[in-house]
Design goal:
alpha+beta, 2 helices, four-stranded antiparallel beta sheet, Nuclear Transport Factor 2, Chain: A, 86 residues
């Protein structure tokens, strides 16, 4: 067994996997996260479980009408772009 190639393979796999965990960053002109939460609450959400920047929009999960929902929100207005029951 050659330990150097095995170590390099392990390092490469670790770097590759850790890249998937990196979240996007909100743009400078995006609505602040606390204001997005307020906008979502005004749309009927009683709890926001997750909210993060993803592919040019806010991506999240929350409770609405007693059901767990997944949603996308506009980055500049906080308006719901789409939602589905989870």
């Amino acid at each position: 067994m050659r330990p150097i190639p095995t170590l390099l393979l392990a390092l490469a796999l670790n770097v590759g996997v850790s890249g998937f965990a990196v979240a996007d960053q909100p743009g400078a002109d995006w609505m602040p996260i606390d204001q997005v939460k307020k906008a979502l609450m005004a749309e009927g959400y009683t709890e926001i479980l997750k909210l993060e920047a993803d592919d040019g929009h806010w991506d999240g999960e929350g409770i609405k009408n007693g059901r767990k929902m997944k949603f996308d929100a506009d980055p500049k207005t906080g308006a719901i772009l789409g939602e589905v029951a989870d």
